[in-house]
Write a structure and sequence with these properties.
The chain is mostly beta strands and 261 residues long. It has a single domain, classed as Umud Fragment, subunit A. 11% of the residues lie in helices and 33% in strands. Strands 1, 2, 5, 6, 14, 15, 16 and 17 form an eight-stranded antiparallel sheet that branches.
Length: 261
């Protein structure tokens, strides 16, 4: 009798674990997608090693965020419009990899960079100095990337700095941006007119981001059609500064559950 109860308990435990995994899998497939930050293009909003869940329901489903085979081959269903300032994960229209950037231009907008200042429809987005972003010059994350520094070659273990500004978008949203080179390649551009049904993305680390300022043929993002959007990044769940997640001494406890702004 005792053995039968023990066997029954094991079976029930296995069932519970099985259904928990099924529910978690369905929840992930339908609503959220995990995403690790691999590069420094969104510093200091997002750091290498930040782990977040992407809200796949934010803009409706597309062929790149759709669960199973429920969605059309092209276009979106139940779509709502991304807002300027949203931080979004999307599929690169050419190389099929996932990127994360900030929405800067909406369909029909005219976007330009002049002397490191963003212009939207001919109006400058105000920038307010906000001190300096500091980090140690060392290999970061599993890809072992070395940061770019405004203060030049500081050497291993030195303090790498970037000027930080608070940029205000036309709708009033404020976010942090970094500047490394006051006359970088992407700091003075042509006027980009965003096509209907597409979006213009930029990284917050303005001089270290391959984004919509750069043509797809040159390795950039270019304009991103709505169907390539996967979802909105709302909150950092976990963060590790080490090359492996299990290196607990590198965990950044101050970033747990931090809102993405």
């Amino acid at each position: 009798m005792a053995k039968d109860k023990a066997d029954g308990g094991i079976v029930e435990t296995i069932k519970t674990v099985f259904w928990a995994l099924v529910i978690a899998g369905v929840f992930r497939t339908l609503f959220f997608q995990p995403f690790w930050i691999p590069s420094e293009s969104m510093k200091d909003t997002l750091l290498i090693g930040d782990f977040l869940f992407v809200n796949k329901m934010a803009y409706g489903y597309s062929k790149y965020s759709c669960p199973f085979a429920m969605c059309p081959i092209s276009g979106r269903i139940f779509a709502s419009e991304p807002k300027r300032g949203d931080v979004v994960v999307f599929r690169h229209p050419v190389n099929n990899t996932d990127f994360i950037k900030r929405v800067i231009g909406l369909p029909g907008d005219k976007i330009q960079m002049k002397d490191s200042v963003l212009y939207i429809n001919g109006v400058a987005a105000p920038q307010e100095p906000d001190g300096v972003f500091e980090e140690i010059y060392e290999a970061q994350g599993p890809m072992r990337n070395l940061p770019r520094c405004e203060n030049g070659a500081v050497g291993a273990g030195g303090i790498c700095t970037k000027s930080r500004f608070i940029e205000t978008l036309p709708e009033g949203q404020k976010h942090s941006i970094l500047n490394i080179d006051p006359d970088g390649f992407g700091d003075n551009t042509e006027v980009f007119t965003v096509p209907v049904g597409s979006y213009f993305f930029m990284g917050d680390n303005r001089d270290n981001s391959q984004d919509s300022r750069y043509a797809q043929a040159a390795g950039g993002v270019g304009f991103v059609p709505a169907e390539y959007l996967i979802g909105r990044a709302d909150r950092i769940m976990f963060s590790s500064a080490g090359s492996r997640m299990l290196y607990f001494w590198t965990w950044r406890s101050d970033r747990y559950f931090k809102a993405v702004e």
